[in-house]
Amino acid sequence: MHLRSILGRRVIEVRRLCPQLGALRHRFVECGRDQLESGHCSGTMADVAKKIREHIGVEGGYHAIPKSREGLLKFQPDPSDLPERSMIDSQTTASILMESDALMRERFVYGGGLLRMGRMMEELDLLAVWISHRHVFLPKLPKGIPLPYTFVTLLVDHGHFLVEKFKADVDISLSGHVSWSGNSSMEITAYVRQNGMLLAKAIFMIAARDATNSGPAPVNPLTPANELEKSFYQEALERQKRRMGKLPHLEIKRKPSKEEEQIMYEVFTRTKGIEGPTPTDMTALPPDCRWMSNSYRRTLLHPFPEHRNEANTIFGGFIIRNAIEIAFMTASLFSNNYPVIQFISDVTFTHPIPVHSYMKLKAYVVYTQDNYVQLMTVVDAIDGNSFTQFQSNTVHLTYSCRQKVPEVLPKSYSEALWYLTGRRYFQRFLESIGRDMEGCETSPPENINGAGECI
């Protein structure tokens, strides 16, 4: 019996056994075909973190003066010395022991037993770095010499959270592989499963840097080894073309289209009237609507050395986790409900955050439609020495609620541009459902306050 038909029957059986999943009867396209498996297991995620440190020769724990890696620069290879690699070379799995480890469960759940997707993305980011380590192979590197590379997250292209029934007491399996490589960057496709059921998927872009993180480093070219790898590779090529065509950091500055200009005009007339504002009545908020200027939350965090990566800057996964969690709180307070994260996209890393910095996070509700809330989280850093401020990250997130949410409306031209940006990202979410999933139903989940939901 073919593996495809077996997996198809399993999906049908799961749906019959779990009618409460009528909220979101999606399944990844990857479930409907053979899965890329190498049989390699990297242990637990704690083992993965240890392997990364050992692979690049970085000491664990805190050191006032980190060990210099300048001596490794001479081992950086020439691109011509790097052999081709296939996806199976980097594929691996790692586990999070939720069933047997009560302390681990405590790290991954909210007070009501809700699974923390921010924490999950933090672990996936770490796994993506380890997969990058497994892809890069230097045949001329002398034995006993650490890998003269540093890997940093460039971008989270997107992440899907499609099944709302993560269980807090069932072990979690993370897996992934390199799906595309350039001169000094790689795309990583990562998956999350429980009981063999695919629950989440994320696409990362990882940059290879030299031993001191002062310049780019070459990576092995990726050559698909079979038809399955060719199909994954073709999908990755299409994503890369889209990324090059629409750079995420320029999206918010994109000039409105004719259709979007009409949308801005309609919002203007709804809030200011056809004749525009008058001295006595500048704005008028329609019923069941809220101003964007009042629909945000902010906080200030002080990262510590425990949150740093091997490059001695704040770990990207830590930033993503906190961006997701402030967005969840903002969406919850906006909707007066428990929102469920559905989609995250274009998590940009424009500037690394030094360990001695502070993080300022702001989450804005920028667009709403029916029971969906579209948010934008902006992460700024304040240097702890010079006290200068710079923008580090922007995160776009889509949440769904059980009931229809109030409509958010812009009050100024700059807010109108955010509104249009949020609308574009919401449309990308809807388009991705048709591209990445089958059997789409976008109704909100039932029993949304029950234990084991993902947020």
TrEMBL record:
Belongs to the acyl coenzyme A hydrolase family. One of its GO terms (biological process) is acyl-CoA metabolic process. InterPro entries: HOTDOG_ACOT, HotDog_dom_sf. The gene is LOC108020956. The keyword Ion transport does not apply. One of its GO terms (cellular component) is mitochondrion. The keyword Repeat applies. This is Acyl-coenzyme A thioesterase 9, mitochondrial isoform X1. It comes from the Eukaryota. Keywords: Hydrolase, Repeat, Transit peptide. Gene3D superfamilies: Hotdog Thioesterase. GO terms for molecular function: fatty acyl-CoA hydrolase activity. PANTHER family: ACYL-COA THIOESTERASE, ACYL-COENZYME A THIOESTERASE 9, MITOCHONDRIAL. Residues 88-212, 293-405 form the HotDog ACOT-type domain.
